[in-house]
Amino acid sequence: MGERHARPISILGNMSRLVVLLLFPVVRGFWTALSGGGLTAWAAGAWFDILVVMLILFFAIARWYSVQYAMDRRALVLTQGVLFRKRRVIPLRQATTLSTERLWWLRPFGAVKFRVDTMAGGTRDADVVLILTPKEAQRLMSYHRAKDQAPGYLSMRYKPRAVSIAALSALTSNSFAGILLTAAFISSLGDIVGEEFGEQVYATLG
Question: Sorting pLDDT into bands at 50, 70 and 90, what band is 199?
Answer without folding.
Answer: very low
